[in-house]
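Section handout 9: paired folding examples.
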Amino acid sequence: MKYISTRGHVEPKGFIDTVLMGLADDGGLMVPEQIPAVSAATLEEWRSLSYQELFLKIFSLYTNDEIPYEDLKELVATSYSTFRSPEVTPLHQVNDSLYVLELFHGPTFAFKDVALQFMGELYSYISRKRGEIIHILGATSGDTGAAAIQGVRGKEGIKICILHPHGKVSKVQELQMTTVDDSNVLNLSVHGNFDDCQKVIKDLFADLDFKGRYHLRAINSINFVRILAQTVYYFYAYLQVEGSAEKKINISVPSGNFGNIFSGYLAKQMGLPINKLIIATNENNILERFVNTGEYKPGNFKSTYSPSMDIQVASNFERYLYYLLGEDAEKLSGYMSKLQSEGKITVDGELLAQVQSDFDALGAKNQQCLDTIGKYKQEYDYLLDPHTACGIAAYEAFSGNGETTITFATAHPAKFDEAIQLIAIKQEFPAPIAALFEMPQHQTVVEHDKEVIIRELQAFYE
């Protein structure tokens, strides 16, 4: 299998070269030339597999044998050895129609660990095998940064710089990043919001001279490996529901950058028989508006109780648009140019009908988020984090009679105690999180100025 750019101006690449490229050199996003198909019979064969075994089956469809099977097996085993649950992503039944897939059992208590622990091991493997210097550069709305840092801290041949919006992540998210004192880690706290941080990252990756000179590699979900690693838990969740082959299974996904939900779209295109893919977001509801009206237009940024979804420009939207437009790179490029020049994209007619066939979407309001947390704690003694609460609100809005919904719990509630306290719920922090509050912080606060950020990066990488 080869990988191509959504914009059509990159020669087909192998798996490892795709990993190293991250953002395509023509400004697009890398996708497989063909999506492999998984039959119903194969799905049944996979039902008894462990998470790690399932991961190997799915990745083997995409790696072109560039990573020997035994090496890949070792990478997977190491990646998930630090998770607190032997199932990696255990499935919890809440009621007759609702399951929650707990994605927060990794070292930083968030779903990003599932992909980024593997990516950290993969980058380290590539660095050793190819003798390559790897400088990871990424932006985070909170969870990606901590998980990425945890995945590569202290690893030889790798340096990582993460930009996060100053004062716009939760305190625990901030501490998980900034209490790391390894010499290969740099935290830049940027005055601005996540979209500001993300734009700087994209601009730097689009500068091919700068990208090549400093060996820049992507850890954000612009990197296809992030998408693929997340696809695994869609299959795992579906296969853990007893009798799922005879049921209508919906999946409700908190998603701000379109990466997590696009992983579900990829799984469905591979053959996973998901009934409804439900996008859950917050008052930064660009994705809800797109699904409902066909207009993709960044709005006014709002700070919410679910800050990891406080995003107006969704990086992975381009991958979905590519498939929506029939894998027509020229047409996709036209749409993206229009977004750049006019600030919006609009689809209608058959295209909008296809969008509404692919997804349902809900942007949960702040109060609705808090009310949902309180309701599920009272009725089921199950504490949700604010992002998962948005997912549950979307389940309540779109799950029909006779349907079963799996909602992704994308973070442990201890990461967002500021919201939990607003409804007078007192929670006990896990010991690794409680310990963060006694540790010194290491970060550099900078203005939202690309030249200032470049100078910080040059000093760090050189």
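Moving on to protein 2 of 2.
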Amino acid sequence: MTTPALTPVPSAPARARPGKRLLSALPPSGLLGLAIVLFWLVVTVAGPAMAPHDAAAIVDPEVFGVVSAQFPLGTDYLGRDMLSRILYGARYTVALALASTVLASGCGTLLGLYAAVAGGWADAGLSRALDALISIPSKMFALMMVASFGSSVPVLILTAAIGFLPGAYRIARALAVNVQAMEFVQAARARGEGMAYIGCVEILPNMIRPVLADFGLRFVFTVLLLSGLSFLSLGVQPPEADWGSLVRENIGGLPEGAPAVLMPALAIATLTIGVNLLIDNLRGKRKDA
């Protein structure tokens, strides 16, 4: 009795890793935004180690020096290397904005989920309280906080986080209310699942992309708010400096077009443009099944 030949079964194609799927889904503008964001994140972490000079060292007798091989971004109003100043300043501009945005979006999303799932008086109370807070302009609220508690890193982080929390709550609640009306959420309620399970397992995964897009947008707003406070001398205080402080302290070189005032502004612009390009393309390319 002969044994029939076995036909080899083709192996299932390996699934692409999440990182590769993300890169393949992003269009060229999204990849450019991702590259800019990653560049500034690396600078935030490794900026002081990459800086050719100490941020406070006066390395050139000429103030508002032009771009040269020795000083690629020129020198400031005291003769300090602007490249080193920008690399050191990224720690405050990016790190403070990132910490504030994580706090605002995280708390706003959790509160929005709770309000949508709980409903009733909890939803109404949270919404009315945060409506009262959102009615205060963010810059006015920041000025009140700095005037009351002084300017320090914790105060700046909490100020930006509290100021942008109501907007994050509103977005998260609206998304959660739409998702919870779907049949699979109603089925989970009928099974007797608790609020934590419904919110974190059933609703949150189905609203994560819009929440991430909102996170990127709030990060941009936070960068601009903190840089604006520093430009008004109400943000990061000397001897430390963020990019907004660098623009303010070198504003005297603006009439002559000094690189010292243009380069920090360019750094803020590239960061915000990069984040906007990334979040605009966060949905990626849609593929036909």
